[in-house]
Design goal:
Chain A is an alpha/beta fold. Chain A has eleven helices and twelve strands. In chain A, helix 3 packs parallel to helix 6. In chain B, helix 3 crosses helix 4, helix 4 packs across helix 5 and helix 5 runs parallel beside helix 6.
Chain lengths: 317, 322
């Protein structure tokens, strides 16, 4: 197995919400409630689940946009050749470190500044991190536009976002992300707004870049079929917790957790002759697994690298 | 018996850049109790077809040619008051994002009763309420929802209530325009089941519009693939999937990932859909055709569906260039 790039242990993100307009009581929403996983160099992990299960909160915590409220995130720091907790980084060191982590957002219509041209949009991260002189930066923009397939770059650099189609805009987002040469990119549903004929070309572009530049992805999606195409491993999230995590094909062919089974059985199949049936939730298999596991671990390893959560979800599933 | 027959329908929008021909020579028919799917990418004219059927298109949109024969009667050119008879009690529609179109300050039940009052002025409030409870039962909602406000319901519940609303005036045909697009897969699965059940129980005809070919595969008996305002392939859903004739249909099938079967390399299509302003009647797909023959390259062939097999039609140009 390749070296670990990122290691997440018991990550928690709790939000305090007031119970009512005039109430003094606060309730705690456990949006992300103690999840653990790791991602090796150049590998991609899919995070799937229903809306509201905590996928995007996880993404924001991992990309250091929002502070976590508990747990630990460790990255492999090439300067010291060892894992380093982000809690140990501060100030300049943290800023420098942030270059390694970038994010691609869902909506290419809203995540680009409409008043800036493409060149300025992609230049911005270089300016913020003060990398190279202006000439170097412009060359970098030129090169990255070629990499993401917006050629010839000189035609695209002076244009504004509204002059581009959705697919081209998402390519600009990817270019802006990759210009920092990140090691880790968090992708929050980057293709769900795009039409099918364009979607695959963006997905293929991201896969090729991952191979060429050794980028790791945390790929968030609600669509298991997309996750299958994009990811080496898949983690299924439910109610703020990971209920199952395994290699992609293992997870799809051999799901254990009732929620995973239900999720898989809910995906429409593009084949009229396929007779899909929605899985009726039952806990027998999970219960017997838990009974055989006297240590009361939170995650049980059912086969190598295939972990199933034992959290009590009977009431809510 | 055909409940709906659309013949050579043309619809265009007037814009400052010129006439946008959103629907071009579209013909299809829907039998009683059948479900008919329309699939295509954004901007291909799916929703414009749906809006034309109810003649609810935007003010700058106009049906310029063609007939829409519903229940034996051409409804193109009817007066507004005659159309109001057809809308909702003949053809009803579940709009894209309809769950967000509830009035936030009126209870769900009252909003459904409002539609029923319009079409059944003689019925009492109690009769209407009784009918709503029956409909809620069909779509899997508790009767207490009648007295709830929209913000008290989840997205899935709101969408179920929209389906109940669409059923409230006993339509013969329901148009579902991307009814599950904003919902996640588990809820989508439940809503799809509900729609199928409703169709079975009430013997309705259904037009199901979606960009998702997987949903079309599961929901429809017959289907049409639209590209740039025209139907480019049409037929029995099973035949279109097993033997796609048009390159665009093939692209749609080959670009859709699936969780069953071996993992396939997916294919995309270069280029973008053409502008629909002042177009001609020749094959508009030829700009993107991956395997054009000479006729296709020079755009020699006018668009027209040709028969391939019983219940299977595709555009002439693409059938030739393979």
């Amino acid at each position: 197995m390749k070296n670990t790039l990122i290691e997440v242990k018991n990550l928690e993100k709790y939000f305090e919400v007031s119970a009512g307009l005039f109430s003094r009581n606060k309730t705690i929403v456990k949006a992300v409630d103690g999840i653990s996983f790791d991602i090796p160099f150049g590998s991609s992990l899919g995070l799937v689940g229903q809306s509201g299960c905590g996928k995007t909160t996880t993404a924001r915590a991992l990309s250091l946009l929002d502070p976590k409220t508990g747990g630990d995130i460790k990255f492999y720091n090439t300067d010291i050749n060892d894992m380093q907790s982000i809690d140990d980084l501060e100030g300049e060191e943290l800023k420098k470190f942030r270059r390694n982590i970038q994010m691609i957002f869902q909506d290419p219509y809203e995540s680009l500044n409409p008043r800036w041209n493409i060149k300025d949009i992609i230049l911005e991260p270089l300016n913020i991190h003060n990398i190279g002189d202006l000439k170097d930066r412009e060359e970098a923009v030129y090169e990255i536009l070629k990499t993401v397939g917006l050629t010839p770059p000189e035609n695209y650099m002076p244009r504004y976002p509204h002059e581009l189609s959705g697919g081209q805009r998402q390519r600009v987002s990817i270019a802006r992300t990759l210009i920092m040469k990140p090691k880790f990119v968090v992708c929050d549903e980057p293709t769900s707004m795009l039409d099918v004929s364009i979607r695959i070309s963006i997905m293929d572009l991201m896969l090729n870049l991952a191979k060429d530049l050794e980028v790791s992805y945390l790929y968030i999606t609600h669509d298991l079929a997309v996750a299958r195409y994009m990811c080496d491993r898949i983690a299924v999230m439910f109610n703020g917790k990971i209920v199952e995590i395994a290699e992609t094909e293992e997870l799809l062919n051999n799901p254990i957790h009732p929620y995973t089974k239900r999720l898989i059985s809910s995906i429409p199949i593009p084949d009229p002759s396929y007779n899909r049936e929605t899985y009726e939730v039952n806990f027998q298999e999970l219960d017997s697994l838990i009974a055989d596991n006297p240590n009361s671990d939170e995650m049980i390893e059912v086969s190598p690298n295939h972990l199933v959560g034992t959290h009590d979800v009977k009431e809510i599933l | 018996m055909n409940i709906l027959e659309v013949k050579d329908l043309d619809m265009s929008y007037k814009t400052i850049d010129g006439e946008v021909e959103a629907v071009k020579k579209v013909s299809f028919s829907v039998k009683e109790g059948e479900s008919f799917g329309i699939v295509g990418e954004s901007g291909c004219g799916k929703t414009s077809v749906a809006m034309s059927l109810l003649q609810l298109q935007a003010d700058n949109g106009k049906i310029t040619n063609g007939e829409i024969i519903f229940d034996g009667k051409n409804i193109v050119g009817l007066s507004e008051s005659e159309l109001r008879e057809v809308r909702w009690s003949g053809i009803s529609i579940v709009f894209q994002g309809a769950m967000n179109s509830w009035n936030p300050v009126v209870k769900i039940g009252e909003q459904i009763r409002e539609a029923m009052r319009e079409h059944y002025p003689d019925k009492t409030k109690d009769e209407n309420t009784k009918r709503i409870i029956e409909l809620f039962d069909i779509v899997g909602l508790d009767s207490s929802i009648i007295d709830r406000f929209p913000h008290e319901l989840s997205g899935g519940m709101k969408q179920r209530a929209v389906i109940a609303l669409a059923l409230s005036c006993d339509p013969k045909l329901i148009i579902a325009d991307e009814p599950t697009t904003a919902l996640d897969v588990v809820i989508q699965d439940q809503i799809l089941k509900e729609i199928r059940k409703v169709q079975d129980v009430l013997g309705l005809s259904l037009i199901y519009i979606s960009h998702d070919i997987a949903v079309i595969a599961e929901m429809t008996d017959n289907m049409a693939v639209m590209y740039a305002g025209s139907i480019v392939e049409m037929g029995k859903t099973s035949k279109v999937f097993s033997n796609p004739k048009h390159a665009y249909t093939r692209m749609l099938l080959e670009s859709t990932p699936s969780i069953v079967g071996p993992k396939k390399k997916l294919r995309s299509l270069d280029g973008e859909p053409p502008s629909l302003i002042n177009t001609d009647s020749y094959c508009l797909f030829s700009y993107r055709c991956p395997t054009p023959d000479d006729n296709c390259k020079n755009r020699n062939i006018e668009m027209e569906l040709t028969k391939i097999d019983t219940d299977h039609y595709a555009d002439k140009c693409c059938v030739n260039c393979g």
